[in-house]
């Protein structure tokens, strides 16, 4: 298991400092860059009692293994991997607080940009947790954190060994699982997405695996008017989550 990670980018590092400052081992800021954009980081670090050091751009590029760090790189203790047991804990908390569960399942998303964008969508939509299979999925990498713009440090990500079993388990707790597939007969705007819900999205190339699809309570499509056969998974995730939000607010 990985013990340390790199997180970079202004929003990702700011969320980290605000939510889990105890994870920060070292924090580097670009030398000579005292502009407004770094002030939230400087303030969050000083509030959290985290020391930072200044470094040249080349040093930050090397630490981040990317030039997309926006002048901020942190070396952090790896985030705790959340499991099925943690998911049970969250379901109990939601029930005690009389909240209606709202989950996102990603069945084998492998592109870090897609996972980052899905986490950002999930946070914006108020999703309580994202469930992914441990194998054949990208984990919480530095690129995922950067693209998620802070959401990767906030939205709980449950990495489960057996996705079909976890789906059965949350169904037993009253969660209705809606899978998404372009060829489904009923569409996202016809579905009832108001109750305890998990929306399941498929992988970039293959879509939902057979067992995942068979484990869903219903399947929905997003109507496609043009000539392409499918949407990018993060775009499709945003559409489905926010249709659910629209219904749940109404
Ligand atoms: C790029 S698509 C996968 C395409 C794959 N060839 C398939 O047949 O499912 C990735 C995921 O985005 C979601 N998605 C994309 N377009 C969709 C649509 N029109 N309706 C429902 N879901 C869609 C589904 O979850 C799908 O598994």
Short description:
Specifically methylates the ribose of guanosine 2251 in 23S rRNA. The protein is α/β, with parallel strands linked by helices and 250 residues long.
N-to-C SSE string, H for helix and E for strand: EHEHEHEHEHEHEHEEHEH
Low-confidence stretches: none
CATH class of the largest domain: Alpha Beta
Number of domains: 2
Number of strands: 10
Radius of gyration: 19 Å
The main β sheet shows up as:
6 strands, parallel
Spatial shape: globular
- Cross-sheet strand order for the largest sheet: 7-6-5-9-8-10
Gap from first CA to last CA: 44 Å
The DSSP helix count reads 9
Structural class: alpha/beta
Overall average residue pLDDT: 95
Strand content: 15-25%
Organism: Shewanella aestuarii
Function: Specifically methylates the ribose of guanosine 2251 in 23S rRNA.
Main location: cytoplasm
Pfam family, one: SpoU_sub_bind
């Amino acid at each position: 298991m990985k013990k340390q990670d790199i997180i970079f980018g202004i929003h990702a590092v700011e969320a980290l400092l605000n939510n889990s400052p105890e994870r920060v081992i070292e924090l580097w800021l670009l030398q000579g860059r005292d502009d407004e954009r770094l002030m939230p980081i400087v303030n969050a670090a000083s509030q959290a009692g985290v020391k930072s050091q200044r470094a040249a751009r080349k040093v930050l590029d090397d630490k981040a293994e990317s030039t997309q760090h926006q002048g901020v790189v942190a070396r952090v203790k790896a985030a705790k991997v959340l499991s099925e047991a943690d998911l049970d804990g969250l379901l109990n908390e939601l029930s005690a607080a009389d909240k209606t569960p709202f989950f996102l399942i990603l069945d084998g998303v492998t592109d870090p940009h897609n996972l980052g964008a899905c986490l950002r969508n999930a946070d914006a939509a108020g999703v309580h947790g994202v469930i992914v299979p441990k194998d054949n999925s990208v984990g919480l990498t530095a690129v995922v954190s950067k693209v998620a713009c802070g959401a990767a440090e906030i939205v709980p990500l449950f990495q489960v060994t057996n996705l079909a079993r976890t789906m059965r388990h949350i169904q037993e707790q009253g969660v209705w699982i809606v899978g998404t597939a372009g060829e489904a007969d009923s569409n996202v705007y016809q579905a009832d997405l108001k109750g305890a819900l998990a929306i399941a999205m498929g992988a970039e190339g293959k879509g939902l695996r057979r067992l995942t699809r068979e484990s869903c309570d219903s399947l929905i499509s997003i109507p496609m008017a043009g000539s392409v056969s499918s949407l990018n998974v993060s775009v499709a995730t945003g559409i489905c989550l926010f249709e659910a939000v629209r219904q749940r607010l109404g």
